[in-house]
Amino acid sequence: MSANQLEQAAQATKTAFVFPGQGSQKVGMLAEIAEQFSSVQETFAEASQAVGFDLWHIAQTGEGLDQTEFTQPVLLTASVALWRVWLESGGVAPKYLAGHSLGEYSALVAAGALSLGDAAKLVNLRGKLMQSAVPQGLGAMAAILGLEDAKVLELCEQINVQGRGSVEAANYNAAGQVVIAGDKALVEAVMAAAKENGGKAIGLPVSVPSHCSLMKPAAEQFAEALEQTAIELPRIPVIQNVNAGIATDVAGLRQALTAQLYQSVQWTKTLQFLQDEGVEYIVECGPGNVLANLAKRLPKIEKACPLDTKARLEDALNAILVAEGKIA
């Protein structure tokens, strides 16, 4: 499908594709689908050549998969490989694309705004800069469940006043589900306060406190790399993490990708935007089904399908083609 055909086909559907972020990776990802589609390993070879190390080996063996600088390009490549398999299999072109955190880069590759090679190099650097911005063990992230967003923000503000450092809302994932990030001691204090206020708090097994002000030094360095990377406006609209909006120029796109490192991921607003725009079907294009499960909570989303196994791919292809009226 040519770029123009893709753009025209996308405008006629009620489907959106969402691409997962870090945490969705798993050892052996896409192995089953790669047996059927040679494009999977071809995609990994393309990205591996750009970054200078074997991404497929990392994905299949797990060696280094827990290191952010490797996790990010592996997950990006897996998501792009699934996108290519979807189109190769006759899947419909979606009306919108969106990605959670790292997944925004997968969406931009799918939309033709970034080449896979450039995106792989960017997220490899992004991982390195994020890891070096905060010494190991000093930062933390936690999911706060069962409290209103405003209450979580209030608790963060109270703890920020009391302690040195900062803790902030990092991801607004769904109603009653906010991820916080910042200095480890302050994150733990908010977790305790959340429990005292009737909520739940779950520490996340991450080495980097993403989407908070501790990432500003990383963002300043990353902005330089973005300026030197060829970027075009997406052929299919990509909803941005920082504002749940769509960039109207390349400068705004670069600015949003820089700010994404230290500002909150507005995923709740992103899903609301999709609903408001008439999207009824969501496909999660990457390992796992975290985003599909979040989408299933929404009243106007009729189908939310993951793609990451042969059975799921076949089910999603059939379900979306039927829903869009492409087959009876």
From TrEMBL:
Protein name in the entry: Malonyl CoA-acyl carrier protein transacylase
Key words, A-Z: Acyltransferase, Transferase
GO CC annotation terms, alphabetical: cytosol
Catalytic activity: holo-[ACP] + malonyl-CoA = malonyl-[ACP] + CoA
Gene Ontology terms, MF aspect: [acyl-carrier-protein] S-malonyltransferase activity
Annotated organism of origin: Acinetobacter faecalis
Name of the gene encoding the protein in the UniProt record: fabD
EC number(s) on file: 2.3.1.39
Keyword Acyltransferase assigned: yes
